[in-house]
Design goal:
Layout: E1 4-9, H1 15-27, E2 31-36, H2 46-53, E3 57-58, H3 64-69, H4 72-77, E4 81-87, H5 89-97, H6 103-109, E5 115-119, H7 123-127, H8 129-140, E6 144-145, E7 149-152, E8 158-162, H9 166-176, E9 188-193, E10 198-201, E11 204-206, H10 213-224, E12 228-233, E13 243-247, H11 251-261, E14 266-269, E15 276-278, E16 299-301, H12 305-310, E17 318-325, H13 329-340, E18 344-349, E19 360-367, E20 371-378, H14 379-400
Helix pairs in contact: 1-2, 1-9, 5-8, 10-14
This protein binds cytidine-5'-triphosphate (CTP).
Length: about 400
Amino acid sequence: MQKSVLLIITGSIAAYKSLELIRRLREQGIMVRCVLTKSGERFVTPLSVSALTENNVYNDLWSLKDETEMGHIRLSREADMVVVAPASADIIAKMANGLANDLASATLLANNKPLLVAPAMNSYMWNNPATKRNLQQIKDDGAEIIEPGSGMLACGEIGQGRMAEVDIIAAMIISRLGNKNLPLAGKKALVTAGATIEEIDPVRFISNKSSGKQGYAIAEALALAGADVILVSGASLPVPSNVKIVKISSAQEMLEACEKSLPVDIAVFTAAVSDFRPQDTSKSKIKKKPGAAAPILKLTENPDILKTISTHKKRPQLVIGFAAETENLENNAREKLARKKCDWILANDVSGGKVFDSDMNEILFVSANKNENWGRISKQSVAQKLVEKISLQIVDKKKKS
Ligand code: CTP
């Protein structure tokens, strides 16, 4: 049966992106009905929304005609899910407080369907304690939130508040509606992320600056594309929905968890694995001895997880590594591609500390026969681009076999 979405467009410059969202959903054969608020109408016209949805646009709680044909109660009853995109600070405040003084808020108050909310606003509005309270309230009331991205906002300020990418919102809607046509439906994926911790003694360790953000974004994008995702992680970030997490600490634990997850179709290694670990871990804290020389730390090499999985008898169909470099990006990436026997390397320039803990990355994509410079883009966009490439590759192989 045809799935149906009720899309509520509120007043934000991001409303223009909702037109693209409608197209994406329509391409998947999903029926879209729209409610457009008065402020939403300042950014997109009812005519363009109606032309794209091939449906009436609803914008007036007091319209005799609309209420007789399709009242605000029926609008949610006849949809499989309700999506608010963009969701302004105002509509979020109304939802949190149960206000119902226009068609959008009345429909939301009467809603009995799964609800997805994609906020878009200025970063000060986003960070305002009132908005935070309201968001927490609507989450507690059962809404699913698609966090806005960071970067340059339409108002010229920089910060968090930009509506999530249309691809992500569309993929989330499609996956919540249970669409079997997702490109990676039925595929299993393994992702490693974050830093490993190699213990010297009970209080000290060797680790590195990796935040895990890139790996988590890739795990999320793979799950949104329909894959069954196992994320083996040394990081402590919020786990994306529909992703199975396996928390590890050391490189050896990471390797064990990866081998245990096999067989998988796709493996992406973003983790910053410590190349060395202390040869012996002291059971008790190493103490200073007055007058004695500083202790010498003997290191031993850790297993190369990417290489082990690339050469494993259960090798995944597609194995992708990262290469954190501070110089000779391409040469080092090509050397790693050959040495680690993986299919693709995403080389990132980490010189000057510009990648660690940042939301941005700078990528050179390297495969056996080509290079692509993706330039400086957000980690979320890297994840989307990569998952698009993975999907094409997997579909291609499906066709060939
Ligand atoms: N990697 C891994 N296991 C290791 C070391 C690295 O799986 N013990 C993976 C990383 O997750 C990444 C790729 O190998 O996908 C390259 O990691 P990088 O740290 O750039 O390379 P190294 O092998 O550590 O080489 P070098 O330190 O000489 O740059």
